[in-house]
Amino acid sequence: MSFAHNTYKTTFDELAQAHDETGILRSRDYFNSLIKAEMGKGISSSRIVLGGFSQGGAMSIFTGITCPNKLGGIFGLSCYLLMHGKIKDFVPEQNPNKDTPILMGHGDADPLVKYAWGQKTAEVLQGWGWNVDFKTYRGLVHSADPKEIDDVEAYLAARLPPLEDTSNSGK
Fold it and tell me: Is 142 a catalytic residue?
């Protein structure tokens, strides 16, 4: 039986066995190239937030905590920690995102990416010293919820305050 058909039986520790390390690292490198390109356009990395849902959230957390640049924020919804047995090997020595707040949200009725996987991800990251705010959405399956979207909006507003308007300076 394949992993995809047995997620309801798969434990958090068994997830790592199904990970495509080469593909994950290739995706992370691509995300980092996008960050570098934005920085090349004058965007401060502290104004860049990585986030996503499901596999996008998993990649955002993986990329965020292994990113060589200080980010403005990291969030993952209905996701889990990729390569949790090896991820510390990919964290830069200076660990620029150790203090970057991480928002995680997960429905407690998610049959695809189990709620327990999200909880365990938050526990593992907190145990390693990351600042993780894990929010539970009662009755939510593998989907989004208006309250969850409101929480992401509040997180983004806190992480990315408005820039000073300089368009009228000097007048």
Answer: yes
